[in-house]
Write a structure and sequence with these properties.
Chain C: Keywords: 4Fe-4S, Iron, Iron-sulfur, Metal-binding, Oxidoreductase. The complex is a heterotrimer of chains A (292), B (644) and C (147). With 292 residues, chain A is an all-alpha fold. Chain A is built from nine helices and one strand. The two termini of chain B are 38 Å apart. The chains are: A mainly alpha (292), B mainly alpha (644), C alpha/beta (147). Chains in contact: A-B, A-C, B-C.
Chain lengths: 292, 644, 147
C-alpha cells in the first residue's frame, strides 16, 4: 500500500514534469497575447515564452556564485513534486507545504547573491509568502471539511462542486491568487513586466539557463495553482472536469484583466488586505461549516 | 525489569554524584574528562533504557521509601533556604515571601495531610517518559559537552579578575539533568514536585551566573514566576490529598478521566504550573530574561529541560483535559494565543537569541494548545513537537553561541556572510532553521498533524490561529536564513578556532535531527504510538505513512542540497553583482556615486516594528491570557467538590 | 535553429544627448510600434538583455557605466548605436568632455544614424542586430562543440 501511493506520486511527478511545462508555456503565451490585445497591440506569437526559454538556455553560463543555480534547481524540483502530488490525487496539505519549500529555495537563491536589488526582492517575496500562506492553509482545511479528507482525489466523491459550500474560501483564494501568479497589483517581488522599481527583484542576478529554470518553474506553479482553482469545481461526474476547465479559463482571464487594470500597491496594503481577506473569508466559511 | 529499574535509578542519582564531584574540580583538564565521560555514560544509559523498552506500555515499579520522602522534604527546605538567602542579599521581598509560603505549605502538607497517603509504586516509565529521557540524556548531556569549550571562551571574554564560577556552573547543569529525570520517572507526585522545584532553583542560579545587575534582576523574575507556578503545583497536591486521596500521578490521571469533576481544580492548578514553567504568556518574560545567561544555559532551558518539564506535565494531563472543559479551554487558548502572538513578535527582533526565545515560547504554545485539545491525534503532534523542537533548538542555540564568540555579536544583522566566514557552522545553523519551520522536516510534519488534529476536533479558533501563526513563522525564519545564505568573495575564515567539543555537540545535534526527520515514521511506530495506545486505547495518527515517507525522501534531498550541492565549483563565468552604475568592489557592494566618490550599498532585514512590535502585541496577550486563567480558576473552584 | 533571434530582449542606456533619441527608443517599445511582435522586451537588467541600445555620446563621466553594462551582459550580445550622437558624437563631438561615439567605449554591431533616430529605423536596426545575434549564437555553439 505504501509503495503503491509513493509510486503513484512519483509517476504523477514525472508526468507533471512532462506536461505542466507545455501547458504552462501555452498559458503564458496566451497571457501575453491577451494582455497585448487589451493594450491595443498585436502581441507576440503564442510560442514566445518557449522561444524565450530556449534562448536563455543558449546563453553563456555566468553567475555571481555557484550556489544560486543549486537553490533554483531545488526550487524547480520541489515545484514539480508539488504538482505531482496534487495531480496524482495526493495530499493537498503536503502539496501546499512542498510548494512553500520551493518558494523558500527561490528566496534563498536570491539572498545568496547579495545583490541589493535581489535582497529587496527576496524580502518582499518573503512578505508575499507570509501574506498568502494563511489563506492557502485555510483553503486546505475548508477542502477537508467538505470532503472529509485532505486527499485531492476525494473531490471526485462529492455530490456537488466544493465551491457551493466553500464559496467564500474560493473568493479568498481568488484574492491571493493574484499574489501567487505575480500579477499586478501584487507583483512586488518580481514583475513580469519591464516596469519594476527594483531592477528585476528576486531574479536580478539570475541569468541564462538559471533564469530559464525560473521561467519553467513559474509555468509549473501556474498550472498547479490553476489546478487548485479547478479543484473547487469538480464533483462525481466526468462532466465536472469540463466545468473545472471552464472555471480555470474564466479565472485566468480575470487575472489577466486585473493585471492590466491595476497599479502596483505598497506592501502594507497587500499584507493587510491579504490577511483580512483570509480572516474574514476563510475564518467565517470554516466556522460556518464547523458549527452548522 | 530489574535492569530497567536500576538504569532508572542510576539516571537520577548518577548526575547528582557527578555534580558533587564537579563542584570541587577547579582545573580545566580534569573537568573536561569528567564531563565528557559522565555525559557519555548518561547518554548511553538513557539510550540503553529506551532501546530495551521500545514499544513498552506503562511499567510501574514497586518502590516506596520513607527515606526518599524525607530527602525530598529536606531538599524543599534547602531550596527555600537558598532562595530566601538570595532574596535577603538582593532585597527581593516577593521572592522571600513566595519561598516562605512554599516551604510552610510543603511542610504542612507533608506532616499534616500527606502522612497517611502512600504511593506503593513510586517510580514508573512509559513511552513518553522514555522519549523525554532520551531528550534529557542525549541532548542535555550533549549541551554539557558543548559547554566545556564555550565556557572556556566565555571566561576568556570576561573582564580581568572576574570570579571563575565554572565548577558551580557545571555542577548545576548536571543537577538539572537529575531533576529532569526525577520529574519524568516519578509516579509519586511529591517527588515530582521536588524535581520541579529543583529545576526552578537551578535555572535561577544559572541565569544569575554572571551576577551582573541585569542577570540578578532576570533571575529574580524567573524565580518569582516559577515559584508562583510551584504554588500552583502545591495547591494541586493539597487538592489531591484532600479531595482525590492519592499522590500517585498515574492513578490521579485515571481518576481524572473517569470523574473529571473531582480533579478539575487539581488539573487546573497543575496546568497552571505547567504554563508558568513553559513560559506561556503572561509569563513569557522570564524566558526572555533568561537570555542573559551563558548560551549553554539557554540551550538547556529551551530545548531539553525546564520548559520541557512544563509541556511534559501538560501532555501528561491531556487525556484529563479532553474531558474537563474548564482547564482544557484555559490550556488551549493560552497556548494558541501565545503561539500566534510570540510568532508575531519574533518578526520584530534582530537579536538572534531573542528570536530563538520567542520561537521557543511560540512552539511551546503550540504544544500547550495540542495538550489542551487532548485528543490522541493532538498528543501525537505534541510529542513530535517536543522531540524535534528539542533537537533543532539546541542545535540553533549552540550555533548562535559559537557564532557569537567568533564574530562578536548575536545580532542577526551581523551574521551577514556567515556562510563565507564560518562555512560549516552556517550550514548547521541553516539546517537548524529549516528544521524549525519548513516541510519536510519533523517540526513541520508535527505542525501538520497539529492542524489536522485541530480540524478533527473542530476547533475553528485554533485552526485560524495556527494558519496565521505559521505564516508569521515563515517570515522570521526565512529572513534569517536569507542573511546566512549570502555569499561574496572569500572573507577570512574565522571558524578554525572553534573548540572540538563544540563541533562534537553540533554534529551530534545535526545527525540526530536528520536521522529523526528521516526515520520519523519509525519513531512514531516504536515510541509515540505505544504511548498513545497505552493512554487512549487507540492509535491516533493523522498523517498516512506514505506521506511521512515522502517527507523523509524530501528531507534527504534538502540535506544533500545543503551539504553537498552548495559547495560545488561554479560552472561558467563568475560575475559581479549588478549595482546599476560603476561598481568599485562587488564583494563589499560599493559603487561610484554621483560625485565620483565611493558609496556602499547596505541592506537590512525587515522587522515591521509598526505592525509586530513588542510594545503593541505583548500587552494584548498578557491581559487576555491572565483573564482566561483567572476565569478558569474560578470555574474550577466552583466545579470541584470539596470532600474532607 | 537558433532562438536568439526570436527573443531579443533589450536594455537601453542614454548617454550624453539631447534626449530626443532616448524618447524615440521608448516610443519604439510602446504599444504604437509594438516591439513585442518580434519578442522584443525592454529589460532593466543587463544580465537579462541580448541587445544593448545606446543613445547619446560617450563622455568622461559615463564611459565606465557603458562598459560595465556591456560587460555584465551575457554572450551572445549585440550593441546598437541609436542616433547620430551614439554613432559619432553628433553635434556634441567637439564638446570638452565628450569622447565620441559609443564605439570609443565598446564594440558596436549596428549603427542607426538619425537626429533623432526614427522608430522605423530603430526596428530595422534591431532586426539587423538580431541577425548578428544568430551568427554569434551559432559561433558559440560551434566553439562549444569544437572544445
Amino acid at each position: 500500500m505504501i509503495e503503491m501511493t509513493l509510486l503513484t506520486t512519483l509517476i504523477g511527478t514525472l508526468l507533471f514534469a512532462l506536461v505542466a511545462p507545455v501547458v504552462g508555456c501555452l498559458l503564458a503565451g496566451l497571457d501575453r497575447i491577451i494582455s497585448a490585445r487589451m493594450q491595443g497591440r498585436v502581441g507576440p506569437p503564442l510560442l514566445q515564452p518557449y522561444y524565450d526559454v530556449r534562448k536563455l538556455f543558449e546563453k553563456e553560463r555566468a553567475s555571481v556564485n555557484a550556489v544560486e543555480r543549486v537553490y533554483v534547481g531545488a526550487a524547480l524540483l520541489f515545484a514539480v513534486l508539488a504538482g505531482g502530488i496534487f495531480f496524482s490525487g495526493g495530499n493537498l496539505l503536503l502539496c501546499v507545504f512542498v510548494i512553500t519549500l520551493s518558494s523558500l529555495f527561490f528566496i534563498m537563491a536570491a539572498y545568496s547573491t547579495r545583490s541589493p536589488y535581489a535582497e529587496v526582492g527576496a524580502a518582499r517575496e518573503t512578505l508575499q509568502v507570509m501574506s498568502y500562506e494563511p489563506m492557502v492553509l485555510l483553503m486546505a482545511v475548508a477542502f477537508f471539511q467538505v470532503t472529509g479528507s485532505f486527499d485531492v482525489a476525494a473531490a471526485f466523491g462529492l455530490t456537488h462542486p466544493a465551491v457551493c459550500t466553500i464559496g467564500l474560501v474560493f473568493l479568498g483564494v481568488l484574492f491571493i491568487l493574484t499574489i501567487k501568479l505575480r500579477k499586478s497589483p501584487f507583483d512586488l517581488a518580481l514583475s513580469h513586466h519591464a516596469h519594476q522599481e527594483i531592477v528585476r527583484g528576486v531574479t536580478t542576478e539570475m541569468s541564462g539557463p538559471t533564469l530559464g529554470m525560473v521561467e519553467i518553474m513559474h509555468w509549473c506553479e501556474n498550472v498547479l495553482f490553476m489546478g487548485w482553482i479547478g479543484l473547487f469545481f469538480v464533483w462525481g461526474g466526468p462532466l465536472s472536469l469540463i466545468a473545472a476547465l471552464i472555471a480555470v479559463v474564466v479565472v485566468y482571464f480575470l487575472e489577466i484583466w486585473i493585471d492590466n487594470n491595476f497599479a502596483r500597491v505598497k506592501w502594507q496594503f497587500m499584507f493587510k488586505s491579504a490577511w483580512l481577506v483570509a480572516l474574514v473569508a476563510g475564518g467565517v466559511n470554516i466556522a460556518v461549516l464547523a458549527f452548522l | 525489569m530489574e535492569l530497567s529499574l536500576g538504569l532508572l535509578g542510576f539516571l537520577i542519582v548518577f548526575p547528582l554524584i557527578v555534580a558533587a564531584v564537579l563542584l570541587f574540580v577547579r582545573h580545566e583538564g580534569p573537568r573536561r574528562v569528567i564531563v565528557c565521560a559522565a555525559a557519555a555514560v548518561i547518554a548511553a544509559a538513557s539510550v540503553a533504557l529506551v532501546v530495551m523498552n521500545l514499544g513498552a506500555a506503562t511499567v510501574l515499579f514497586s518502590f516506596e521509601s520513607e527515606v526518599v520522602d524525607f530527602v525530598c522534604t529536606g531538599i524543599s527546605a534547602l531550596i527555600a533556604a537558598v532562595i530566601i538567602a538570595f532574596g535577603v542579599r538582593y532585597k527581593n521581598v516577593l521572592a522571600i515571601a513566595l519561598a516562605a509560603v512554599q516551604i510552610v505549605g510543603t511542610l504542612v502538607l507533608e506532616f499534616v495531610f500527606a502522612h497517611e497517603i502512600e504511593v506503593p509504586y513510586g517510580l514508573y516509565f512509559d513511552s513518553l517518559s522514555l522519549l523525554m529521557a532520551f531528550i534529557i540524556g542525549v541532548i542535555g548531556s550533549g549541551i554539557c559537552v558543548y559547554a566545556l569549550g564555550y565556557m572556556e571562551d566565555f571566561q576568556a571574554h570576561q573582564p580581568e579578575g572576574a570570579a571563575d564560577r565554572r565548577p558551580l556552573f557545571f555542577a548545576l547543569m548536571f543537577v538539572f539533568l537529575a531533576a529532569m529525570f526525577a520529574i519524568v520517572f516519578s509516579n509519586n507526585m511529591e517527588w515530582m514536585f521536588t524535581g520541579w522545584e529543583v529545576t526552578t532553583v537551578c535555572s535561577f542560579l544559572l541565569i544569575g551566573y554572571t551576577r551582573t545587575e541585569e542577570a540578578i534582576n532576570n533571575a529574580f523574575r524567573q524565580i518569582v514566576m516559577n515559584l508562583a507556578g510551584g504554588l500552583g503545583f502545591l495547591a494541586a497536591l493539597y487538592s489531591c490529598a484532600i479531595t482525590v486521596g492519592t499522590f500517585s500521578f498515574l492513578d490521579f490521571l485515571v481518576i481524572g478521566v473517569n470523574e473529571p469533576a473531582i480533579v478539575t481544580f487539581a488539573v487546573t492548578a497543575l496546568a497552571f504550573a505547567g504554563i508558568t514553567k513553559a513560559a506561556q504568556m503572561p509569563f513569557q518574560t522570564w524566558l526572555l530574561g533568561a537570555m542573559v545567561a551563558p548560551t549553554p544555559t539557554s540551550a538547556l532551558l529551551h530545548s531539553s529541560t525546564m520548559v520541557k518539564a512544563g509541556v511534559f506535565m501538560l501532555v501528561k494531563l491531556a487525556p484529563v483535559l479532553a474531558v474537563a472543559p474548564a482547564p482544557s479551554i484555559m490550556v488551549m487558548l493560552v497556548g494558541a494565543i501565545t503561539f500566534v502572538l510570540c510568532s508575531f513578535m519574533a518578526i520584530s527582533q534582530s537579536n538572534a537569541k531573542r528570536v530563538l526565545a520567542y520561537s521557543t515560547i511560540a512552539n511551546l504554545g503550540l504544544i500547550t494548545a495540542c495538550a489542551g485539545v487532548g485528543t490522541p491525534e493532538a498528543v501525537w503532534a505534541a510529542t513530535f513537537l517536543i522531540l524535534f523542537h528539542a533537537i533543532a533548538k539546541s542545535l540553533l542555540f549552540l550555533c548562535v553561541g559559537t557564532a557569537e564568540h567568533h564574530i562578536g555579536s548575536r545580532d542577526i544583522e551581523d551574521m551577514d556572510l556567515l556562510f563565507d566566514r564560518m562555512p560549516r557552522l552556517a550550514r548547521f545553523m541553516m539546517l537548524g532553521i529549516m528544521a524549525m519551520f519548513i516541510a519536510p522536516f519533523g517540526m513541520l510534519m508535527a505542525k501538520w498533524a497539529t492542524l489536522v488534529s485541530f480540524v478533527d476536533a473542530q476547533q475553528v479558533a485554533l485552526i485560524v490561529i495556527l494558519a496565521f501563526g505559521s505564516a508569521a513563522t515563515f517570515m522570521f525564519w526565512a529572513k534569517w536564513l536569507g542573511k546566512l545564505a549570502g555569499i561574496a568573495g572569500s572573507p577570512e575564515n574565522v571558524e578554525v578556532t572553534v573548540k572540538p567539543t563544540e563541533w562534537t555537540a553540533l554534529l551530534l545535534m545535526a545527525c540526530l535531527l536528520v536521522l529523526g526527520c528521516v526515520f520519523l515514521p519509525l519513531i512514531s511506530a516504536a515510541v509515540v504510538e505505544p504511548y498513545i495506545f497505552g493512554v487512549y486505547g487507540t492509535v491516533g495518527q493523522d498523517i498516512s505513512a506514505d506521506n511521512l515517507w515522502l517527507a523523509s525522501l524530501c528531507t534527504i534531498i534538502v540535506v544533500v542540497v545543503l551539504f553537498a550541492g552548495v559547495g560545488a565549483k561554479p560552472k561558467g563565468r563568475t560575475v559581479d553583482v549588478y549595482l546599476a552604475g560603476v561598481s568599485r568592489d562587488a564583494d563589499t557592494r560599493s559603487f561610484q556615486n554621483a560625485l565620483s566618490g565611493t558609496a556602499e550599498a547596505t541592506t537590512r532585514n525587515w522587522y515591521m516594528e509598526s505592525v509586530f512590535g513588542e510594545a503593541r502585541i505583548a500587552p494584548v496577550g498578557v491581559v487576555f491570557n491572565s483573564l482566561i486563567m483567572v476565569a478558569a480558576f474560578v470555574v474550577a473552584f466552583v466545579v470541584t467538590p470539596l470532600v474532607f | 535553429m537558433a532562438f536568439a533571434s526570436k527573443s531579443p530582449w533589450v536594455i537601453h542606456y542614454d548617454g550624453s544627448s539631447c534626449n530626443g533619441c532616448d524618447i524615440e527608443v521608448l516610443a519604439t517599445l510602446c504599444p504604437g510600434f509594438d516591439g513585442e511582435r518580434f519578442g522584443v522586451i525592454n529589460t532593466g537588467n543587463p544580465k537579462h538583455a541580448d541587445i544593448f541600445l545606446v543613445t547619446g555620446s560617450v563622455n568622461e563621466q559615463n564611459i565606465g557605466v557603458v562598459r560595465e553594462i556591456y560587460e555584465q551582459m551575457l554572450e551572445p550580445k549585440v550593441v546598437v548605436a541609436c542616433g547620430i550622437c551614439a554613432c559619432s558624437g553628433g553635434v556634441f563631438h567637439d564638446c570638452y568632455n565628450v569622447i565620441g561615439g559609443v564605439d570609443k567605449a565598446i564594440p558596436v554591431d549596428v549603427y542607426a544614424p538619425g537626429c533623432a533616430v526614427r522608430p522605423e529605423q530603430l526596428i530595422d536596426a534591431i532586426v539587423a542586430g538580431v541577425a548578428k545575434l544568430d551568427e554569434k549564437s551559432a559561433a558559440m555553439k560551434a566553439a562549444k562543440k569544437g572544445a
